[in-house]
Amino acid sequence: MQIAWFVLVGTVLIVMAFTNHLVKRLPMSPAIVYLGVGALIGPLGVRMLNVSPLDSMAWLEVLTEVAVLVTLFTVGLRLRVPFSLSGWAVPLRLATVGMVITTAGIASVGWLLFDLPWPALLLLGAILSPTDPVLASEVQVRHPDDRDGLRFALTAEGGINDGAAFPVVMLALGLMGLHDIGDMGWRWLTMDVAWAVVSGVGLGWLCGLVVGRSVHALRQRGSPLEAEEFLTCGVIALVYGAALLIHAYGFLAVFAAGGALARTERSLRADKTAKPDGAHSSRLIHFSAQTENLAEVAIVLVIGASLTSVAWTWQTLAFALLVMLVVRPLSVLATVPSHLMAWPQRRLLAWFGIRGVGSVYYLAYAVNHGVDGSTARTLTNAVMIAICVSIVAHGISATPLMGHYMKKRKREPGT
Question: In the chain, helix, strand, coil percent, each to 5?
Fold first, then answer.
């Protein structure tokens, strides 16, 4: 399978390089194209690649781990809105209270449709609670100076909740006897929540500031930075490794590092020195985005090639639809009040609860840490089908909905 994988991924990447301008003109997300190619090269088509998610969790965890790290760093770089409780109110609400509501809602839907113990239902909710705007790039912020409230909320939410899901995953694994949460959950509360979150964000922010100021100092001496790709990979690897070393959440640390780099650039650009540093993060964003796209291609191809390895029952389809059409809208409406966001934006925010790479990672992480048997099969079927349905539904609707939204925004005064 490895030989077929390398040949197919290489072929797809070369074809995409030559036809990327055509794909961008399609009224759909590129992820749908990758999903279709994966289905065609899998058992539904020429049968060149047959992927069973349950049998591939070891390398799926590594692949999705790298993809999430690159994505979070890139998202952090793109977000230039200065941090404040008021400016970040919507994504912070969605990534905290909204995630709790989403997790509970998904677990409740799972209870209605699947024969799972309640800790496994909690795990299912935690796995599918993170959103992933990468798989429908039309909803992301388009450039570092993009201040659109909807795009910012969706992008920042995806950056925060990809790491914020970890405490609930660890709690669910602990309740299943697969992780030590201590008596009455004290170890989970102190180490898996308080320490891992605070130290992860603090470590990442500190590293991002140090790297950003070091780059600025280098340029002030007249020495250009010519290896942005080394800096990107180096910061991600260093921050993630250091976070794991101190038992912090590496996803949050990498996201914070990207945000700190962006903040450093913004503050230094405002500095009226002879040689202001204002170029490094734009090139970092470009390289990170390209790496992000490579990971997206590989993972969505796997999802497409595994479509026949999961159980497409009425329960799994109903579960996917209820998560998308009921749980996500209710969590947004309950979390984001009208004074924070106008109804047209809230409506789109409620629809674009995209599931993707982060959920695959958490699924693989859970299975690799001891979830097995019928529970693992049920979780895999539910998660993979929910992601597939999300890719198709959101990928088809993203371009026309966002196009209509942006045209309406342009007609509004003051926008």
Answer: 75, 0, 25
At a CB cut-off of 8 Å and minimum separation 6, what does 31 contact?
135, 136, 296, 300, 356, 391, 395
Is the overall model pTM greater than 0.85, yes or no? yes
List, for residues 286-310, the tens digit of each pLDDT value: 777 777 777 778 788 888 888 888 9
Q: Domain coordinates of the chain in residue numbers? A: 2-411
What does 12-30 look like in DSSP terms, one character per residue?
Answer: HHHHHHHHHHHHHHSSS-H
CB 8 within 8 A of CB 41: yes
Looking at residue 47, the DSSP 8-state letter turns out to be -
Report the C-alpha gap between 192 and 248 in whole angstroms. Answer: 8
Main-chain dihedrals φ then ψ at residue 293, nearest 5 degrees = -65, -40
Question: What is the fold, at CATH topology level, of the domain defined by 2-411?
Answer: Na+/H+ antiporter like fold (1.20.1530)
Q: Are 294 and 323 a contacting pair, CB within 8 Å?
A: no
Question: How does DSSP classify residue 88?
Answer: T
- CB contact at 8 A, 256 and 156: no
Per-residue pLDDT reduced to its tens digit, 4-57: 667 766 777 777 677 666 666 666 777 888 888 888 877 777 777 777 888 889
Q: What is the DSSP string of 222-290?
A: T-----HHHHHHHHHHHHHHHHHHTT--HHHHHHHHHHHHHHHHHHHHTS--SS---SHHHHHHHHHHH
